[in-house]
Amino acid sequence: MSDQSRAPGRAWGGRLLVGLETLFVLVIVAGVAWWSVAGALVLGGLLGVLACERALADARGRGGDGAGGEGL
pLDDT value at position 1? Predict the structure, then answer.
């Protein structure tokens, strides 16, 4: 049984949380860009890498394929 079939409201709440986190990060990066464009680009790159790692870890936790073969 999937998580979505057990608790339909849970998936919506998760998407809302991801949306709020994304908005928060964009506001922070925009604020840094007012001060330093280069700093905002570096910060955006680092946060992008962290977001990808988080998504891959989530996929591995659910039994997804993930990427590469790091866990073999």
Answer: 47
Instruction: Tell me how far the alpha carbon of residue 13 is from its chain's centroid.
Output: 15
Q: Residue 9 and residue 31: Cα distance in Å, rounded?
A: 33
Q: How many CB atoms lie within 10 A of CB 28?
A: 14
- Domain spans in the chain, listed from the N-terminal domain onward: 9-60
| pLDDT tens-digit map of 40-68 | 999 999 998 998 888 888 778 776 555 55
CA 32, 37, 43, 48 torsion: positive or negative? positive
Planar angle of CA 23, 27, 14, nearest 5 degrees: 15
pTM of this structure = 0.60
Tokens of 49: 């890498």
